[in-house]
Design a protein that fits this description.
With about 200 residues, the protein is an alpha+beta fold. The protein has helices spanning about 15-25, 30-40, 40-50, 75-80, 95-110, 110-115, 120-130, 170-185; strands spanning about 55-60, 65-70, 120, 140, 145-150, 155, 160-165, 190-195. The strands form 3 sheets. Strands 3-4-7-8 form a 4-stranded mixed sheet, with helices on both faces. A two-stranded antiparallel ribbon has the order 1-2. The chain has a two-stranded antiparallel ribbon with strand order 5-6. This is Transcriptional regulator.
């Protein structure tokens, strides 16, 4: 009797890890973004689907049918064991998928060290707490001091607060983000980067 051939497990590379980390902190992405920011081709995304790390999701973008990618429960468990820079995962939006896509692009465009220290809404609440109607931003990249080997200089980068705003947001919801950033994160009133999307 012939032995059943075992399925070979996919080896996750450093490039894959960087991609999965940003996806875990933002919720969804398009294949073009995976390639643009992480040089991960569609064939590699298909391997990740085949091995159970990501799933394809049908969406509507500008009234056209499309699809995006998001993590599977298997990937979430794997990330928890293998990517220590991910604490709490971002909860993908139920509606307004463009919100998560824009958030992915925003974080993916940052240097790797900023991707590593970026905090999701759940991370922010876990560390800084919450109060009343105050609402944490989508992403918080804390102030960071690092030594640059190439220049021999110690550089301090100020914190960055990112909120993607859709046309569903009320002025009260935006004010709740501003108040949270001011009260808990110590930023000035204009210290949030608001990015608008449909």
């Amino acid at each position: 009797m012939a032995r059943k051939k075992e399925k070979r497990q996919m080896r996750i590379t450093e490039k894959d890890k960087a991609f999965l980390q940003v996806l875990s902190k933002t919720g969804r992405c398009f294949s073009e973004d995976a390639e643009t920011y992480f040089n991960i081709k569609k064939s590699r995304l298909n391997q990740m689907i085949h091995n159970g790390y990501i799933q394809r999701e049908a969406i509507m973008v500008n009234r056209k049918a499309s699809h995006c990618y998001r993590l599977t429960p298997k990937a979430i468990r794997w990330i928890g064991r293998n990517i220590p820079t991910v604490n709490k995962l971002y909860k993908p939006a139920k509606a307004g998928t463009s919100h998560d896509i824009v958030l992915f692009r925003e974080l993916a465009s940052k240097p790797r060290w900023q991707q590593d220290i970026a905090m999701t809404e759940k991370d922010i609440i876990g560390k800084y707490g919450t109060f009343g109607s105050f609402s944490p931003p989508d992403l918080y990249i804390p102030i960071h001091t690092r030594y640059e080997v190439e220049t021999g200089i110690t550089v301090t980068t100020p914190h960055e607060i990112i909120e993607v705003v859709t046309n569903n947001y009320s002025s009260a919801e935006i004010e709740a983000k501003v108040d949270y950033a001011s009260y808990f994160l110590g930023t000035e009133k204009g210290g949030i980067t608001f990015i608008e999307t449909n």
